[in-house]
Design a protein that fits this description.
16% strand, four-stranded parallel beta sheet, single chain, alpha/beta, 39% helix, globular
Length: 109
């Protein structure tokens, strides 16, 4: 059985969401773990768009994880509201959101 691993999207204004998206598209990654993306779906969607990765996604449901198709991204959105976070721009809002995602993932662990 593959372990379930939480992947935090990182700085919403940085390259983290794109790197996560590209990693999610890798068959090698899916062979070694079952990733659960932690972060706002709007940040994940931006990363998927920039990386040109098209995968269905579904909200996290721990009791049904084994029933989720392999190509489906499991996303855990902590209820973070959309914020205007321009890519490539330093901002306190982006840093604060990054910290909230990380704390959320640590709490899950």
């Amino acid at each position: 059985m593959r372990p379930t691993i939480a992947w935090v999207l990182g700085d919403p204004a940085g390259i983290g969401p794109e790197i996560v998206a590209k990693s999610l598209a890798s068959p090698d990654m899916r062979r070694v773990c079952r990733p659960v993306v932690v972060g706002p779906t709007w940040v994940l969607d931006r990363g998927l768009s920039v990386a040109r990765v098209e995968r269905p996604r579904i909200a996290w449901n721990p009791s049904a994880i084994d029933e989720v198709p392999e190509d489906t991204i499991i996303a855990l959105d902590g209820g973070w509201a959309f914020q205007e976070v321009p890519p490539g721009t330093l901002s306190a809002a982006a840093g604060k959101l990054s910290l909230h995602m990380l704390k959320f993932a640590v709490t899950l662990a």
